[in-house]
């Protein structure tokens, strides 16, 4: 076609229109055939590609691994939800604390022998990693300037110099509670702890309070729950006694109230402290506290919640 078009100049005036029209018709015909063949080839290539990349939508899909809440986090949230429902609020504070709030305002002056109960990580003479979440109780009482009510729980990490083994850790969790108001009684504490025990360990749980000693409460008690494995008949979990020690508590010591600006003649209160690790270990039969901190997915996956 190119050669024909080049030869148009040699034709006579009469031949040029005829040959030109015919050449255009032939060119259009050939171009149309080429385009038609091109579409056929493209369709064939696409069909071949689709057949190779065919997906059977009826096959089951591959499930992506999905994470879940850590068991300790779930226990803490469960306890928090319970106490929030009873009118408590959550108080949080620094993990690096002063000796004043960690000990002195909790009726533990310097050289007090009870300080030996909590071997501490000191960063300086007056700064340490908190050994309990009780400093938040003192800070919150102080912030209320001697006027109640004060009704809080204090969850968080605490630190003590301890050798890590199946039941001990240098870092662990605590949840402490405090209620200060007019006419707060020991029976109020027992009622709150009974609700807690039944919620966490089962509706048929019973509790008992045994006399104990804590510098920041007077009187002080240890709380036991009836064994949820054997129903109080005796087993390896309760060591044959039918009871399991679960937490410490007591009425807030007058000195603690006084140092935070509250008049012990007007206000009274109770406090308690529990360990989420101990709760989880008892409830789920976990024998080694280190499982909580090793991030072993084989362990953690056992406690996924739907």
UniProtKB/TrEMBL annotation:
Q: Name the keywords, alphabetized.
A: Aminoacyl-tRNA synthetase, ATP-binding, Cytoplasm, Ligase, Magnesium, Metal-binding, Nucleotide-binding, Protein biosynthesis
Q: Which InterPro entries match?
A: aa-tRNA-synth_II, aa-tRNA-synth_II/BPL/LPL, Phe-tRNA-synth_IIc_asu, Phe-tRNA_ligase_II_N, Phe_tRNA_ligase_alpha1_bac, Phenylalanyl-tRNA_Synthase, tRNA-bd_arm
Q: Which reaction does it catalyse?
A: tRNA(Phe) + L-phenylalanine + ATP = L-phenylalanyl-tRNA(Phe) + AMP + diphosphate + H(+)
Q: How is the cofactor bound?
A: Binds 2 magnesium ions per tetramer.
Please name the GO terms that the record assigns under molecular function.
phenylalanine-tRNA ligase activity
Similarity section: Belongs to the class-II aminoacyl-tRNA synthetase family. Phe-tRNA synthetase alpha subunit type 1 subfamily.
Chief place of localization: cytoplasm
Q: Which residues bind Mg(2+)?
A: 218
Provide the cofactor list for this protein: Mg(2+)
Tell me the protein's name: Phenylalanine--tRNA ligase alpha subunit
Name the gene behind this protein.
pheS
Q: Which residues form the Aminoacyl-transfer RNA synthetases class-II family profile domain?
A: 75-301
